[in-house]
Write a structure and sequence with these properties.
binds 6-O-phosphono-beta-D-fructofuranose, Rossmann fold, 6-stranded parallel beta sheet, 16 helices, 2 domains, 468 residues, alpha/beta
């Protein structure tokens, strides 16, 4: 391998996005700050063990604004430039128009376009080449998520000396669904380039294990490994967690408690505050909980003077048609509910289509008696865990979809099938009327589980498995 192609980082993180965002400072100049996402917080403690850490990703901005590599909080950030055209094919197209809907069980129909896949392949190659150039001999490389599924295979071809791990943050589908992909072999071979494949749930890992054998690409090497090209590939579940202590600590902050109190006052001191916090995504079941809420109000099982709902819907992927039409559906429902049941100064649903600060979110978690997390399908769902971590007094009830990965760990939530609207309605009523004793018993057990499986432990156990 020519010396010029070898970098200095002993740990290379490869993710679609860099863990930073550009903000304007007091003087109006823009600067980069660490983005609120959980991945960087999870990795920070583990990164301290490595001499030289690089993180490769897209800045979310156009090529002409993409900076050169720079150091940020001890990490070498290596921006991967994408043209508008590449972003359209790779991100809006193949990632979010094909793989995302397919892997989430076809809640929206996936589209299969050859030019999208060609763009996806081109962008994956750029990431693989940049990772190959950044990694020191024998380094660990950790590739993340469905946007970069071809990277492990491409990287192994360039740098067979590396230890390569890949973690899929979203569900891995059943054989029948995955096999609809015209590029199923190439995408599977891409993942098999890794030494360690991590998934959110055991069922996701089992789906991959079965798929690789069914396609005749790998053979069984025990229950949690495959053999591929005379090499073992570990296939295991590593359920992701949150930075529990950060939420727990922030929940005691006086400013946040004051804000939680003033939120309840602004809502008109209802008996019950319900909350939903999601990216505006059709997988999240925002429309389901709004429909359930609307029917409960119409049937007088909930009363508008006693209950208020806050729904945060963070803008997301707004160039993809399915997201545009979801926004219309959700906003129409919010309008209908407030039109039918609101009063002047007191809408029943408070809908916010903007990203919230960490502090504001915390205040909402603190103010909410009932948290509604009703995705049709979700790899994990960290919002459910954030709510639990913020409930210091062990009060509050979580209504959680059975189809979120978090349901494997949060068994004391009120588990619902989001496709069963009557079941969701009953769970909302049960949550609103639950005795404080029962709520406390459930919340205590969930808090223990969220504390035990936190983000730092998740990253450490993945890297430990990759190292060995
Ligand atoms: O968890 C899935 C995921 O696509 C992550 O890869 C990403 O960080 C997050 O959702 C937000 O999505 P996007 O990068 O498309 O805004």
């Amino acid at each position: 391998m020519p010396a010029s192609r070898v970098g200095q980082a002993n740990l290379v993180v490869v993710a679609n996005r860099l863990p930073i965002m550009r903000v304007d400072d007091e003087t109006g100049n823009s600067k980069w700050v660490t983005s609120p996402g959980g991945l960087v917080a999870a990795l920070m403690p583990a990164m301290a063990d490595f001499d030289g850490v690089a993180w490769l990703g897209w800045t979310g901005e156009q090529t002409e604004y993409t900076p050169d590599a720079f150091d940020h909080e001890g990490i070498r950030l290596i921006p991967v430039p994408l043209t508008d055209d590449e972003r359209e094919l790779h991100y809006d197209g193949m990632s979010n128009g094909t793989l995302w809907p397919l892997y989430h069980g076809k809640i929206e129909p996936p589209e299969f376009h050859r030019h999208w896949f060609e763009g996806y392949r081109r962008v994956n190659r750029r990431f693989a080449e940049a990772a190959a150039a950044a990694a020191a001999p024998g380094a660990l490389v950790w590739v993340h998520d469905y946007q970069l599924q071809l990277v492990p295979g491409m990287l192994r071809a360039l740098r067979p000396d590396l230890r390569i791990g890949y973690f899929l943050h979203i569900p891995f589908p059943s054989l029948e669904l995955y096999c609809q992909l015209p590029w199923r072999n190439e995408l599977t071979l891409g993942m098999l380039g890794a030494d360690l494949l991590g998934f959110q749930a055991p069922s996701d890992a089992a789906n991959f294990h079965q798929l690789a054998r069914a396609l005749g690409l790998a053979t069984r090497f025990g229950p949690s490994a495959l053999e591929f090209q005379d090499r073992p590939v570990q296939v295991r579940a590593f359920p992701i967690g949150i930075d529990y202590h950060r939420y727990e600590q922030a929940a005691t902050d006086h400013d946040i408690l004051d804000r939680a109190r003033s939120l309840r006052a602004q809502l008109g001191q209802p008996q019950i505050v319900m909350l939903g916090v999601d990216r505006l995504d059709y997988t999240k079941g925002i429309d389901v909980r709004l429909r359930a809420f609307k029917e409960l109000l119409a049937e007088d099982r909930l009363h508008p003077s006693q209950v208020s709902m806050i729904q945060i819907a963070e803008p997301s992927r707004d160039k993809v048609e399915a997201y545009v039409s979801l926004r219309e559906r959700v906003e129409r429902l919010v309008g209908e509910i407030n039109g039918d049941f609101g009063r002047v100064g007191y809408p029943v649903v408070h809908y916010i289509h903007r990203t919230q600060s960490f502090q504001e979110l915390l205040a909402m978690y603190r103010a909410a008696d009932v948290m509604l997390v009703t995705p049709f399908r979700d790899g994990m769902n960290l919002v459910a865990k954030e709510y639990v971590a913020s409930r210091l007094e062990e009060s509050g009830v979580l209504v959680l979809s059975e189809f979120a990965g978090a349901a494997h760990q949060l068994k004391e939530a009120l588990l619902v099938n989001p496709f069963d609207i009557d079941g969701v309605k009953s769970a909302i009523v049960a949550a609103a009327t639950m005795s404080p004793e029962e709520a406390r018993r459930r919340m205590r057990s969930m808090r223990r589980s969220v504390a035990r499986h936190d983000a730092v432990g998740w990253a450490a156990s993945f890297l430990e498995a990759l190292r060995s």
